[in-house]
Amino acid sequence: MTGGRGRADVRRDENPMLRAYRLWFEHTRKCVGGCKGAGKVKDGCAVGRELWGAYRLARDEKNVAVTS
Ligand SMILES: [Zn+2]
Ligand 1 centroid vs 29 CA: distance in angstroms? Predict the structure, then answer.
């Protein structure tokens, strides 16, 4: 089997924001639709933008003061 999850277990108490970010990050590493090496989320594919949107939502829900 290839492309398995390996040791990347998803812990139940994983921070939703970090989890969303990880999902996006992992997508960018295997995406062939433009996300890989795009540098900007907007240059990526629809899936990448959707994952990034989910991350931003999770981030906003935590009311984290981020300036970027
Ligand atoms: Zn993509």
Answer: 9
CB 16 within 8 A of CB 58: yes
Token pair for 14: 């994983």
**Does the pLDDT at position 14 exceed 80?**
no
**How many angstroms does the Cα of residue 64 sit away from the middle of ligand 1?**
26
Tens of pLDDT along 31-67? 998 898 767 888 899 999 999 999 999 998 866 555 5
Q: Report CA(41)–ligand 1 centroid distance (Å).
A: 9
> Distance from the CA of 34 to the center of ligand 1, in angstroms?
6
Indicate the domain borders of the chain.
16-61
